Amino acid sequence: MAKEELTPMQRNFNFQKVITAVGALLMLAKFLAYFMTHSVSILTDALESIVNVAAGAIGLFALYTSMKPADRDHPYGHGKVELISSSIEGTMIVAAGVMIILQSVERFVTGDFEIRSLDIGLAIVALAAVVNFAMGFTAIRMGKASRSVALEASGRHLCSDTYSSVGILLGLGIIYVLGFMNIDANWIDPTMALLFGLIIIYTGAKVVYKSFHGIMDREDIDAIRQVTRCLNHIRTDDLIDVHHVRVVLYGAAMHIDAHMVVPGSLTVDEADRIVNHFRDETTEMMGGNVDITFMAEPCRKQFCANCRRAECANRVADFAEDKRFGTDAVTNADPTVGDETKE
After folding, report:
1. Less Cβ around it within 10 Å: N or C end of the chain?
2. How many percent of the chain have pLDDT more than 90?
3. Coil, strand, or helix at residue 227?
């Protein structure tokens, strides 16, 4: 019996489980490295790992919830939970950066720059950095491919952890080398931690910024362009114009609304068949979890110059040229306004 293929959302959920489990193991390894080295850089990396594990658990819950089908209370599905999850995770990334900066400042104030057993600490941090980057890069790629904001946020969180680990390796590596030359450069340890704490805050702020725009249903121009390309590709003589296109993303789910101008001489049944045809073709081309609502409108005299339909009792002008759909034109509520050449 053939094994049932997993959906993109199920694959995202399974990979998030791996991220959470591996994150817990790396957290324990980093705390072990800190107790062995007494390095504030490694401590801050370990503290960020606590955030990683907590954020991973939140992301896991979000992906599990987003897989639930639409119901009476949630007619558009549960995908919005991914935006809530990613905004929380972004906030936690910022919090991790703040903790790192506070720990670094404390070391400068107290003058405690003691470091020991650097060789073992460097090896543990290096291994954790490689694992985090591999998982983070994969999570970002999978999240973008499936439009999963939660998984993409997890990936960016892991990559931000990798960046801080690279900074720690550079700083501790310099200290390790200078130690053989009897040069005390332990102050580099909190300095590098301070620098990468700022970088981590910037990364978290970007995640929060993107999540808030999703929660507020900001227009996704890439999704609009994708819909416009599909309509241009599958259009026929019966599709005269498209306008008032609206695209809303709910996690991995995409909801598309649009008004389609069809010949006014068509019966209601004929117009419905045309609308259903374009809905099915667009859904197939877009792929994934797509919900489309197309509303048919009868043509008006200003569309005659762009209509190829020869047999029309309502025609008042000869056909002049095809109107290629563009992003500005299709998103306008008024079909007579917009730059139809822009894509």
Report:
1. N
2. 2
3. helix
Domain that holds residue 103: 8-215
Helix (H, G, I), strand (E, B) or coil at 244: strand
At 138 the pLDDT is 92
Q: d(Cα 323, Cα 211) in Å, to the nearest integer? A: 36
Residue 129 near residue 166, CB atoms below 8 Å: yes
Q: Do both 91 and 105 map to the same domain?
A: yes
With 0-12 CB in 10 A as exposed, 13-18 as middle and 19+ as buried, what is 166? middle
Give the pLDDT score at 96.
79
Distance CA 126, CA 260 (A): 56
- Same domain for 70 and 202, yes or no, is yes
* Integer Cα distance of 125 and 34 in angstroms: 10
Global pTM exceeds 0.70: no
- Best CA proximity match to 15, nearest among 145, 136, 128: 136
Q: Does residue 3 lie within any of the structural domains?
A: no
